Amino acid sequence: SYRKGGYHAVRIGDPFNAGRYIAQRKLGWGQFSTVWLAYDTQTSKYVALKIQKSAQQFAQAALHEIEILSAIANGDPSNSKCLVRLVDHFKHIGPNGQHLCMVLEFLGDSLLRLIRFNRYKGLQLNKVKEICKCILIGLDYLHRELSIIHTDLKPENILLISTIDPTKDPFRSGLTPVLERPEGGTLNGGSAMNIIEKKLKRRAKRAIANISGRRGSLGGEVPKLERSLDGVDVKCKVVDFGNACWADTQFAEEIQTRQYRAPEVILQAGHSFSVDMWSFACTAFELATGDMMFAPKGAQGFSEDEDHLALMMELLGKMPRKIAIGGARSKDYFDRHGDLKRIRRLKYWPLDRLLVDKYKFSETDAREFAEFLCPLLDFAPEKRPTAQQCLQHPWLNLRTSTHDEMENQPNVKNLNVGISSLQIKVGK
Ligand code: ADP
Ligand code: MG
Question: What is the C-alpha separation between 380 and 344, in angstroms, rounded?
Answer without folding.
Answer: 22
